[in-house]
Amino acid sequence: IDTPNRAHGVCAVDTLAYVADWSSGLRIIDFSDPAHPVEIGFYDTPGGAFRVEVVDTLAYVADQNAGLRIISVADPTQPYEVGFYDTVSFAWEVEVVDSLAFVADDGDGLVVINVSNPAAPTLMSTENTPVAAYGVAVGGGHAWVADFGGGLVAMDLSNPADPVSVSTLES
After folding, report:
1. Fewer CB within a 10 Å sphere, N or C end of the chain?
2. At residue 53, what are phi and psi to the nearest 5 degrees?
3. The model's pTM
4. Phi/psi class of residue 48: alpha, beta or left (left: φ > 0; alpha: ψ in -120 to 50)?
5. What is the distance between the alpha carbons of residues 47 and 25, in angstroms, rounded to a whole number?
């Protein structure tokens, strides 16, 4: 299926694909018939939709210069924004664990946002990286941050309100 702009990220849930499609926002594709996928809904975010993660009925979009956008996809044909957090830099990627969104936010490093109230997300913490945070994965009590030009940064998340860089594997 041809999306209106540039598909940068995708999250699949059951028979739906949620596509971060740059300046065309979030696109929702039904691929229950993989030979004939159909766009069933979209939400045009204000920035450049780069990555998306879906948890339950919410899509979390790393929307580059417009920060983190939280979109209700309870009805995938009628998605709507329920909240946002405008990060300082450029939100490139997001991973959500429990009630926390971990955002790779370019020059601002790793940004941890409390999303327990999706309508009013709040900043929990930030931790700088050597150059520019571009990707993030969370597991084993750590955030693994792909730092564009700076390598891979491991951060201890035993206290998410105060993440601590524990090592860097330079690229």
Report:
1. C
2. -135, 135
3. 0.96
4. beta
5. 8
On whether the CB atoms of residues 20 and 49 are closer than 8 A, the answer is yes
Express each pLDDT in 116-130 by its tens digit.
999 999 999 999 999
- Angstrom distance (rounded) from CA 100 to CA 2: 33
The answer to whether 21 and 59 are in contact (CB under 8 A) is: no
Q: Which of 6, 31, 2 is nearest to 21 (CA)?
A: 6
- For residue 164, the Cα-to-chain-centroid distance in whole angstroms is 21
What pLDDT does 150 receive? 87
Q: What is the 3-state secondary structure (H, E, C) of the chain?
A: CCCCCCCCEEEEECCEEEEECECCCEEEEECCCCCCCEEEEEECCCCCECEEEEECCEEEEECECCCEEEEECCCCCCCEEEEEECCCCCECEEEEECCEEEEECECCCEEEEECCCCCCCEEEEEECCCCCEEEEEEECCEEEEEECCCEEEEEECCCCCCCEEEEEECC
What mean pLDDT is predicted for residues 141-165?
Answer: 94
